[in-house]
């Protein structure tokens, strides 16, 4: 007892210290897209995520095998409902939404930190260890318990950029009702405090006017302003975040004269002055334009999540490994520094785009859209990147125990080099694999994607 009391006074400080460390790590997640003919077994990917200390993942669609692999782990999930399901989710007095939540969320959260009753079981176990005075638990238990109890652990992303101009407004009428139905279904399942529904928007939902092209001029696009504000009001009442996808790469891609340094995080020499605020990178400027738009709408304190952000490694003259590394490294350092933006100081939650290259993604702009991965399709890191900001950590750890079928290897690797060349894939697919054709919606419009049934990699987990 004496020992316990003597140490007690230092504990709050230590706890605070560890809590801040935990928060640091938790602000960086990764998008795990699956529009690829060649995918690693989910168990193998989940192991790789754990090896790298990645504990937040965003999925574009509920996939039974992936969710099963994630279930029971501490990895937080943002799970999206594809746009083409929004109409269904919006109707029916919420019956379809309730069914979606039951089938795609509840059954996987049964064993996870999302489940509040499991949090309390954890707390009791912990307390027993602490009472037995097993020192190693005395710090980790209270932190684990508090973070499990108070942290929102999952998100459901209702649609993906449903108000993007390329959709011509077909989702305007269904997005808010779908959002409401999904959140109600989560609440009814007893998950409302741990799982929040949100809508990832494209950065084209807001703008700065030509006569005042600085963040403080920010406002929502006039044609959807009322609708967005209704959505924001709902999110705000429900304690849910506003999710925005930001792609500085596209600014460089679309505009030859765009100052390159500003797209990265190296624009200190040519800052943009906006009143008292000085902007040295596009990321801050984009984010603050949104914060100003929200402030104008009367929601200055809205929580923001950056749902997608990254840099491609191929398919355009500005898309290469060196630039991707430079951008992502600058981004991560910026996020982990906790400096925030001129309008809002502090941590920003982001999901990097993305884990793997996706050779079946629709090409609206160019082939770079299939090369956002920080890993090759087979789980090899493309470049070294320091995701945790941890001093000791040695770069990215690739997927372990990947095996290649010898006869496909020569086709995949020998002929095309180490990068999967998208337009050459179908030939290989036909040679090696049985494919089915399935319709998948992601980004602008409907996509035909090849989903392969037989895996190229011969792993014992399959
Ligand atoms: C669960 O999600 C998948 C993928 O989006 C979808 O195909 C399926 O219909 C969903 N289940 C229900 C009951 O809505
Ligand atoms: C949480 O786990 C308990 C069993 O430990 C289970 O009875 C309950 O239904 C689960 N709740 C959810 C929302 O998964
Ligand atoms: C959305 O609702 C409005 C008003 O009810 C209607 O006029 C409009 O046609 C609808 N749009 C779509 C795409 O369904
Ligand atoms: C990782 O990033 C942190 C913070 O930015 C830095 O202090 C550390 O030196 C980096 N570690 C490596 C191995 O590069
Ligand atoms: C490739 O391997 C599969 C499975 O071992 C085998 O059935 C097939 O005949 C092989 N194809 C070629 C071209 O060697
Ligand atoms: C696949 O792996 C299993 C188990 O390691 C092995 O028995 C089998 O021969 C392998 N098949 C091929 C085509 O390499």
TrEMBL record:
The keyword Hydrolase appears for this protein: yes
Similarity annotation: Belongs to the glycosyl hydrolase 17 family.
Species the sequence originates in: Thalictrum thalictroides (Rue-anemone)
Signal peptide (from-to): none
GO biological process, one term: carbohydrate metabolic process
Native organism taxonomy: Eukaryota, Viridiplantae, Streptophyta, Embryophyta, Tracheophyta
Record-level Gene Ontology MF annotations: hydrolase activity, hydrolyzing O-glycosyl compounds
Keywords for the protein's UniProt record, in alphabetical order: Glycosidase, Hydrolase, Membrane, Transmembrane, Transmembrane helix
Key word Transmembrane present: yes
InterPro entries with a match to the protein in the record: GH (IPR017853), Glyco_hydro_17 (IPR000490), Glyco_hydro_17_plant (IPR044965)
Annotated TM spans: 12-32
Name of the protein this chain belongs to: Glucan endo-1,3-beta-glucosidase protein
């Amino acid at each position: 007892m004496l020992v316990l009391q003597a140490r007690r006074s230092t504990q709050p400080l230590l706890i605070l210290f560890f809590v801040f460390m935990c928060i640091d790590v938790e602000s960086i997640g990764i998008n795990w897209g699956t529009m690829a003919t060649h995918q690693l077994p989910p168990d193998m990917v989940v192991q790789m995520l754990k090896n790298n200390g990645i504990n937040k993942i965003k999925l574009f669609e509920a996939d039974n095998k992936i969710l099963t692999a994630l279930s029971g782990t501490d990895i937080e999930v943002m799970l999206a409902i594809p746009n083409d399901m929004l109409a269904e989710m919006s109707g029916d007095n919420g019956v379809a939404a309730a069914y979606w939540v039951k089938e795609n969320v509840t059954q996987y959260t049964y064993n996870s930190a999302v489940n509040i009753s499991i949090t309390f079981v954890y707390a009791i176990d912990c307390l027993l260890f602490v009472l037995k005075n097993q020192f190693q638990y005395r710090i980790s238990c209270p932190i684990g318990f508090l973070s499990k109890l108070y942290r929102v652990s999952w998100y459901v992303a209702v649609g993906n950029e449903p108000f993007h101009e390329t959709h011509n407004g077909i989702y305007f009428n269904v997005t808010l009702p779908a959002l409401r139905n999904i959140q109600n279904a989560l609440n009814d399942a007893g998950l409302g405090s741990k799982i929040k529904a949100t809508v990832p928007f494209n950065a084209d939902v807001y703008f700065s006017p030509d006569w005042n092209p600085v963040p403080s001029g920010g406002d929502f696009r006039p044609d959807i302003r009322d609708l967005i504000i209704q959505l924001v009001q709902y999110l705000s009442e429900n304690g849910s975040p506003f999710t925005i996808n930001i792609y500085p790469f596209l600014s460089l891609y679309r505009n030859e004269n765009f100052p390159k340094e500003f797209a990265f995080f190296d624009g200190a020499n040519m800052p943009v002055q906006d009143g008292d605020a000085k902007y040295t990178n596009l990321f801050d400027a984009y984010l603050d334009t949104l914060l100003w738009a929200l402030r104008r709408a009367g929601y200055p304190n809205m929580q923001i999540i950056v749902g997608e952000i990254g840099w491609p490694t191929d398919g355009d003259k500005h898309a290469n490994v060196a630039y991707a590394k430079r951008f992502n490294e600058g981004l991560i350092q910026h996020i982990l520094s906790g400096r925030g933006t001129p309008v809002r100081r502090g941590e920003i939650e982001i999901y990097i785009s993305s884990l793997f290259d996706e050779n079946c993604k629709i090409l609206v702009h160019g082939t770079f859209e299939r090369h956002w991965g920080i890993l090759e399709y087979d789980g090899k890191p493309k470049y070294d990147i320091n995701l945790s900001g941890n001093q000791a950590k040695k770069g990215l750890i690739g997927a372990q125990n990947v095996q290649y079928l010898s006869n496909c290897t020569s086709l995949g690797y020998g002929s095309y080099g180490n990068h999967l060349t998208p337009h050459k894939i179908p030939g290989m697919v036909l040679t090696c694999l049985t494919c089915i054709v399935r319709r998948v919606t992601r980004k602008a419009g409907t996509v035909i994607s090849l989903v392969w049934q037989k895996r190229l990699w011969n792993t014992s987990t399959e």
